[in-house]
Amino acid sequence: MTTPESTRPTGDNTGGAPTEAELIDHLQDIDRPVSLDQLAKATGAARDTLKGRLERLEARGLIIISIGLYYVTVSLVDSSQPVADGGRAHPVADIDLSPEQIYTILSNERRRETLRFLSRLADRDAETYAPVGPLSAVVCASGEEFCPETGGDDDDQHATYVALTQTHLPLLHDLGAVEYYSRVQKVAPTDIGLALTELMDIVDGAADTGESA
């Protein structure tokens, strides 16, 4: 059974094989394992050329190639994302939030810097909770509300501390991005918060690539 014309990958100049990004998109569109022969027929690519491209995708951890007695099947690894041709796919953990909730979290600079700081902390020690005082100093120093060469004064840091404890940390806690214990003024990231930081890193990387192009 061939794929509909609208979802059939177009070939490149290398033996008619689709690009790696097109293969990822195609596997997402059909959303089921497919045999190598079926994939070759659907894409119009030479079987050997297609096999080499699929092996590269498997080596990068993006697809699974299962070898049976009489056939080979190809399926997409969970959470692999489509990528631009020549780019790199980034597996991102599932984020159990609506798009509006994600936009709400990431729309504020202080919330973004809070998640970045907590992610760096988790890289060093996953069990550590950050005191809000030092966190507010780091978030303040990364902000735009004061002249960078001053490093921020006590009033700036106090304003950031108040904003974090009264607005941003409760919001992040309610949306499941952090665990915030207001009585002891400590906070740690959740899996959702770490996934959002990965998402920000992907966006930052794409922006850097665009600027250097």
Topology summary:
Elements: H1 20-30, E1 34-35, H2 36-43, H3 47-59, E2 63-67, E3 72-76, H4 99-106, H5 109-124, E4 130-131, H6 132-141, H7 154-174, E5 178-181, E6 186-189, H8 191-212
Antiparallel strand pairs: 1-3, 2-3, 4-6, 5-6
Helix pairs in contact: 5-6, 5-8, 6-7
Provide a compact summary of the structure.
The chain is mainly alpha-helical and 213 residues long. The chain has helices spanning 20-30, 36-43, 47-59, 99-106, 109-124, 132-141, 154-174, 191-212, and strands at residues 34-35, 63-67, 72-76, 130-131, 178-181, 186-189. The chain has two domains: 20-76, Arc Repressor Mutant, subunit A; 99-207, Arc Repressor Mutant, subunit A, CATH 1.10.10.
